[in-house]
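Researcher: Please predict.
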Amino acid sequence: MTLSVGAWLLHGEPLYAPEAAARVVDLLTDPRWPWQPSTIRPTQRPGHAVYPWPKGRVARPGLRAAVADIFTSELSNGIDLVCARTDTANHAWAHVYNGRIEGHEREVAFPLESVMLCRDGTPPGKSVDAWLEIVRELAATLRAVHGAIWVDSDERMVRGRQYVLGTAQPAKPPDFPANESARINRARRDLGERYVRLPGWATFLRSAHVEAVGGRARLLAAVAPPVVHELGDLLYVQLSATVADALAPATEARRRALADLLAPITVPVVAA
């Protein structure tokens, strides 16, 4: 069984200046990626000329420069990096926004949602755990205010959570409400501030979120997560020691305990 591991990060600060972008670019081209995404598509900035897309895969020697040029270009508001154009071969990918805010996005404190995915059947010498280090470092670099990582044997379920497309996904688990997309959109202005999403296998919480539910000590006592990291203002809580145990009953019990604890600040079924 191949597991898919998908991350979602909520952020809003500008990162398109070359100095600010450098660390993001380093992480997107980091050798810890089990498969290096090297087919690039700029995220087109509305109302601007089309960036001249690189054709095919970008060779490793020129990859960092190409990613940096696209990520900082005035013609783009982010970047797509994929391993392959077909889903079956696309073992790792990332879609990261650079902080250029357009139109209605200015009305939301944290309008950007960057996502990335990696499958766990990694090549020899590579690991999903090393890739998770990249995700955590990217969360800190993007100055994310909230985030989650989901693991599932059905990759559609992971992507459904990442893009909040739950209503289009079959076999939804009991904890994934059919109206998830409507709930998130209704509370979008307060997401990352007043509200958080339902927890995943791993969850990123601001210090304000942690304090709102009784503090770090109470969270750790209630959930007993095997992996915890401090990432600036973020607390990273991972519910099993490895991805291999992400679907184990003990992991699910911790997720339910975390969901119960976060209930007062989780996006409500009915808007408050």
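Model: The longest helix spans residues 128-141.
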